[in-house]
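Exercise 7. Given the encoded structure of a 381-residue chain, write a plausible sequence.
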């Protein structure tokens, strides 16, 4: 009797995953509920547990990309151990044959003798010894086959398999670009007051990140323009009455991930900043779970922390909008007909024009800008 271990479907959009590690060896005994494998989806890593107790029989090796629902292993019930009776087989062989068999590791029970009464002789073993010696001899050097691509070219490239989170992300981005009518609108925000407020708060012991201020402004603006907090599913626009804000985070070798701050509208500015820092640290340590990345309603990506002035972000499908924040740079700006040096940042809103019309999109962006330019309205603790 055996139980199948299938690749689980962890969310509604998951189609496949990579088996990154078997935590138990093949033919090892496992218990029901015990973690036996680690898989990697586009969004996170997850554990696979054993559905039964028994002996693990691995069907899919590490590094394999497996579709949802496919059997990756079976658990066989461990058979009870029964003492085996040792059966002694008497072999009729000459002393010389026995000596040669021992020297070359030959099992005499598998050799057919040609001597009197079927006795195994030296003559019977010589062909077997020749085969053993040929197998042990070094192989002849193969003649190299001419390559179409020069060896030097092959040695100077690195090949990264497009699988796991890389493949999933590529497919999701391609799906978004094929499906969504992307439009990007830009605005400039004067964050001089915000930076001064942040510095004053830092002196009081509050280290609030710029991303937290942006997230707070986004939540307030979404409440005024809820169409941007929606998704298009099966020819229906679903406007969310909750605010789960995804924050794009660079997670080293795992690339970009988007952990979600759930019910961001229920957090004050200080709590938002702590949530952003906590998720960013989890991402850097590779500890982001599936629970951390699902059910987002709107996404923020801060490319400014890497020095980029602005970008045209791709919508995190099936959401309908994403806000990109550029680097804060001091620039000459006209203020009351005078040129002043101000700290400016670009805001880049990409939205799905099938769902969001230009007017509410621009008004949403202007609302975010106004809040960042008057940051006192965002401080609520």
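Solution.
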């Amino acid at each position: 009797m055996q139980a199948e271990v299938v690749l689980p479907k962890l969310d509604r959009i998951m189609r496949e995953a990579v088996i990154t590690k078997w935590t138990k060896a093949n033919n090892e005994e496992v218990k029901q509920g015990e973690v036996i494998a680690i898989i990697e989806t586009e969004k996170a890593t997850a554990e696979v547990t054993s559905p039964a107790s028994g002996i693990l029989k691995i069907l899919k090796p590490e590094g394999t990309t497996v579709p949802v629902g496919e059997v990756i292993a079976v658990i066989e019930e461990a058979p009870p151990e029964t003492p085996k009776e040792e059966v002694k087989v008497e072999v009729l062989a000459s002393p010389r044959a026995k000596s040669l068999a021992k020297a070359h590791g030959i099992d005499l029970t598998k050799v057919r003798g040609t001597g009197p009464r079927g006795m195994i002789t030296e003559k019977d073993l010589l062909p077997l010894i020749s085969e053993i010696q040929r197998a042990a001899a070094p192989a002849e050097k193969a003649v190299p086959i001419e390559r179409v691509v020069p060896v030097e070219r092959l040695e100077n490239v690195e090949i990264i398999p497009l699988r796991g989170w890389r493949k999933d992300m590529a497919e999701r981005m391609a799906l978004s670009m094929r499906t969504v009518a992307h439009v990007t609108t830009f605005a400039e925000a004067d964050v001089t007051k915000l930076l001064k407020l942040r510095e004053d708060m830092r002196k009081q012991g509050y280290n609030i990140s710029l991303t937290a201020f942006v997230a707070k402004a986004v939540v307030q603006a979404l409440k005024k323009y809820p169409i941007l907090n929606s998704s298009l599913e099966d020819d229906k626009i679903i406007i969310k009455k909750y605010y789960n804000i995804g924050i794009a985070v660079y997670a080293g070798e795992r690339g970009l991930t988007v952990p979600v701050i759930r019910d961001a509208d229920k957090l004050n500015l200080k709590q938002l900043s702590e949530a952003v820092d906590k998720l960013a640290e989890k991402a850097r340590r590779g500890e982001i779970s599936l629970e951390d990345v699902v059910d987002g309603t709107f996404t923020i990506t801060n490319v400014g922390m890497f020095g980029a002035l602005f970008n045209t972000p791709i919508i995190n499908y099936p959401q309908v909008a994403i806000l990109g924040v550029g680097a804060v740079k001091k620039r000459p700006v006209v203020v009351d007909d005078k040129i002043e040096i101000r700290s400016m940042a670009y805001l880049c809103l990409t939205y799905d024009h099938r769902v969001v019309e230009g007017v509410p999109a621009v008004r949403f962006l202007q609302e975010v800008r106004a809040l960042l330019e008057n940051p006192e309205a965002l401080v609520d603790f």
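Remark. Confidence is low (pLDDT under 50) at residues 139-152. Students should compare their own answers with the one above.
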